[in-house]
Design goal:
alpha+beta, 7-stranded mixed beta barrel, two-stranded antiparallel sheet, 10 strands, about 15% helix
């Protein structure tokens, strides 16, 4: 193998044995939720809600969701972009889903709820699927994330992020 080519991407390690519905925490906060979908347009007739990245599953090309699906679909590109392992998928997604990022909708409904696309310019896009949570609430699950595509759609919202939890400091003199 040439020393100028990137090493081939690794398969999903055996120790990444999380159930497909296991929530992967964002690297920056450690919280389960990646932020909130805040609806800003009356065009979107569904509520906002928390965003989650699941361990997921990959069924086949363009079929699946979550970390496993993103890695299986895009691992060669992710390695080139500086995300060399399946454990770096969360970092890639966190580079896209940040406070203030715009959300568009192509209004191509699936199961009664619209899929939303989070756009972060050159960093990439993340597709969110809405799922019911009780009678009137929804949560959003990251289906996939990618780069180099400009989705069409109407602006319908933005990401409302969470503050990074601060580590409590010991009072002065407490450690003396």
């Amino acid at each position: 193998m040439s020393r100028f080519k990137a090493s081939p991407p690794q398969a999903i390690p055996v120790e990444f044995d999380h159930h497909e519905d296991f929530n992967i925490a964002p690297p920056s906060t450690g919280l389960e939720s990646w932020g909130l979908v805040k609806v800003t347009s009356q065009l979107l007739q569904q509520p906002g809600g928390d965003i989650y990245l699941r361990a997921g599953k990959h069924i086949g090309p363009h079929k699946g969701f979550g970390v496993r699906h993103i890695w299986q679909e895009r691992r060669h590109d992710l390695v080139k972009w500086g995300y060399p392992t399946v454990y770096d998928v969360a970092r890639f997604v966190s580079d896209i889903i940040t406070h203030g990022t715009n959300i568009v909708c192509e209004f191509d409904s699936m199961k009664g709820n619209e899929r939303l696309i989070v756009i972060r310019g050159r960093k990439g896009c993340a597709v969110l699927a809405a799922w019911p949570l009780g009678d009137e609430q929804l949560y959003y699950s990251v289906v996939t994330a990618y780069r180099n595509r400009a989705p069409n759609g109407k602006a319908v919202g933005m990401i409302e992020g969470f503050q990074i939890p601060e580590t409590p400091k010991a009072p002065e003199g407490a450690l003396d």
